[in-house]
Each structure stands twice: as structure tokens, then as C-alpha cells.
Amino acid sequence: MEHAAAVPPPRHAGTAALEFMLAGMLLLAASIATVETMYWHQMRHLAYLALIEAARAGATSHGEPGAIARAFARAMRARHAAGQPGQAATRQQHAWNRQQARTGLPAWRIAILQPGPTAFADHGVANRGLRGPPRIRNDYQAEQHAQRLAQGWPGGAGPRSGLDIFQANTLRLRLVYRLAPLSPWLGALLRASAALAQACARPAWRQGLLPIRLELEMDMQSDPALWPARPDVSYGDARDCDGLTAAASG
């Protein structure tokens, strides 16, 4: 009597299942990375367009920080345009407030790198109306430059700022926008890797945020004026980290 031979179980069944699971995890990770990369580029492009609008507003309003902030926020509303019409501004502000409450960091900040207080010390004049902040004249720049040369300023550059009158009439802004990733996995990865980040990016990484850092220059179309600072727009230095020195953020 013949007996059917027992068929041994596949030796590699467990290995195949493990390989399938690992492949699935890698595919999921690649998909998340692709989506996050696209999202980061889209938000970076939107932030750059908003920074252009902010610079235009500043160039035509004597560099007034409030005008810069309003123009930037208005341009960024496209991120929250979906949903009930007319509520984009409210949704945007709520999102920024929630992020700041959760992380302790503002969602964004614009620094006026140029002209700064030292430029006004070099090139500023009293307000013609005897009211309002000191200003730098935007007209007759060639004549002003010749006057600085006659004063013995090398290259027409002021002794405090190192800027000539043309540079003092150039608005230079720096934006730091802290973007919350779509995936909590990426946020966790950023927090775990914060020690590897550059000093200026480290505070954002510690909170699971991706910092977008942009700079833009635009010729002034009005007399630059020295204004009081705001929490969201203030005078800064090209060497600092959005109000945090590298040492403080280490």
C-alpha cells in the first residue's frame, strides 16, 4: 500500500512575509516623503510670492511694518482658501495661533535687514512735518551720494551702517516661516534629529517644524522711515537667527 508523502511546509514562507512587510513600509515611507516634499515646495513658493507682496507694500509705505505684515498675511490666505468663502483669514489666524500655542514659536516672522537703525543714523533726516519717525530721502539720490563723497565718506558709505544712499533706499526683507509637516512621522523625525540641524533651524526642528527661510530685496518707492518694531515684523541683523542668536538656539 502506497502512502502519500507528506509535503513539508515552505521553508521561506515567513521570510517572504517579512520581506513583503518591509517592502510595504519602504513604499509607504517613500510615498510620505514624496507628498511632504511636494507640500514643502508648494508652501515655499507661496511664501516667496507673499514675501514679494510684503516687500511691495513696504516699498510704497515708507517701510511701515504693519503694512508689510498685512500684505504678507493677505497673500498667504491662499493656503486656507478652501471651505466657506470669506473665512480664510479667520482659519489662517486660528491655524497660526494653534501652532504657536503648541510649539512656543511664532508661525512666521519678517526681519527688516535693510535699512536698519544704523542706516538712519547715517542717512536719516528729521521728518519734514516735524511729526512721525525719522526718514531717509528717496529723491535726489545721485546728489546725496555726491554730497557723501564730498564729506569724505569712502564710496559714499556711512560710517555706522557701511551703506551708501542707494543701499539705504533698498528694502531687504528676510522671512522665516515655520511649516508644520503633514505627517506626524516627519515631525517626530525632525524632533529626533534636531541636534544635527544648523543652529538657526534647531529650535524649529525641536518642535517638529520645517523652517522656510527666504530673503528679498526691492527698491524703495517712498522715503524709508524708522518705525517701532512689531512682534511679527521688526528690524533684524543678517547674522542673527530670527531674533535668536546662534548661541541661544544651540
Feature tags:
8 helices; 12% strand; disordered C terminus; 250 residues
Strand content: 5-15%
Q: Radius of gyration, rounded?
A: 27 Å
Report mean pLDDT, rounded to a whole number.
Answer: 87
SS summary, helix count: 8
Classification by helices and strands: alpha+beta
Helix content: 40-55%
Query: How many beta-strand runs?
Result: 4
If strands are numbered along the chain, what order do they take across the biggest sheet?
3-2-1-4
Order of helices and strands: HHHEHHHEHHEE
Largest sheet report: 4 strands, mixed
Low-pLDDT segments: 244-250
Anisotropy-based shape: elongated
Number of domains: 1
End-to-end CA span: 82 Å
Outline the structure in words.
The chain crosses the membrane at residues 20-40. This is Periplasmic protein. Keywords: Membrane, Transmembrane, Transmembrane helix. It contains eight helices and four strands, in the order αααβαααβααββ. The chain is α+β, with helices and mostly antiparallel strands and 250 residues long. It has one domain. Strands 3-2-1-4 form a four-stranded mixed sheet. α1 (13-60) packs antiparallel against α2 (65-76). The model is unreliable at 244-250 (pLDDT under 50).
